[in-house]
Amino acid sequence: MVNTTVGATEVIKVSGNQRNQQPDLLAVEEPLEIRLNYGPLESRQEKAIAVTMRTPGHDHELALGFLSTEGIVKSKGEIVSISHCENVKEEERGNVVKVALHPEVDFDIKQLERHFYTNSSCGVCGKASIESVETGCRVIINQDVFIEKMMHEAPDKLRAAQKVFEYTGGLHAAGFFNLMGELEMMREDVGRHNALDKLIGAGIEMEKDLSHGFVLVSGRASFELIQKAAMASIPVLAAVGAPSSLAVDLAKKMNMTLLGFVRNNSFNIYCGVQRVQSS
Asked: Three-state SS string across 17-62, please?
């Protein structure tokens, strides 16, 4: 593997009236193609199903999380193997992952024809998107309770665990916190959705139940992040930034708890207040 998460460059640093050339570090961004190998043994098929711009690292978890949040696989046992493809062009090496489904997994390629539209000005698209998610996962019934102090402390814990961000300042993060408010897993990526897919994929790989805890994301809470959290049965999604209107609508439909602006010892509760207690 030649990929790295951090790259070097030269910048002109401007400070007041002074200009100085100096080295700087960047978060690496490269495409990852996910290929799916599926079907009965006598008639296996292979198809490229997605390309996402991501930070190299935890690619297997990213693929696994993506397939899970797209509703293609429901458990680790439905996958035979995940591997980087070696028989590719030199420039593609390390950037193509093949996922082999178990021959008994009933997969229809039309499953991938689902489209989510996050444009909050499109009422029809928003309604169709929410209905599509509702048919793909169950309404969350978990009623675990978390105290406010856990939410206040979570951003600092997540930030302290972001090793690559420390060097580049250019990555999003998603962290899973247990019922005691302890950070158990964290993944970084240039894409918010990729960071969450990596986290969910890691949970599946380790057979960890993500329905008992909460997830904090470093950016805003988009519709897509709520969709992915719902597919993983995550009861509480907290975001350092703001949620979108469609994200709030979906969170309410799925009986999720959604927090926004979780920073500086404060936050907003948009829905699911019963899971957050003052003490």
From this structure: CEEEEEEEEEECCEEEEEEEEECCHHHCEEEEEEEEEECCCCHHHH
The Cα angle at residue 226 between residues 222 and 231, in degrees rounded to 5: 145
Assess contact for 115 and 126: CB atoms under 8 A.
no
Residues marked as catalytic: 122
For the stretch 29-63, pLDDT in tens is 899 999 999 999 999 999 998 899 999 999 999 99
Task: Tell me the HSE value of 71 on the side-chain side, using a 13 A CA sphere.
Answer: 18
The pTM of this model reads: 0.87
pLDDT tens for each residue of 158-179: 999 887 665 566 689 999 999 9
Q: Which two tokens stand for residue 247?
A: 């994200």
Which residue shows structure tokens 């907290």? 238
Q: pLDDT tens for residues 1-12? A: 456 777 788 887
Give the number of residues written for the chain.
279
The b/e string for 5-21 (b: 16+ C-beta within 10 A; e otherwise) is: bbeeeeeeeeeeeeeee
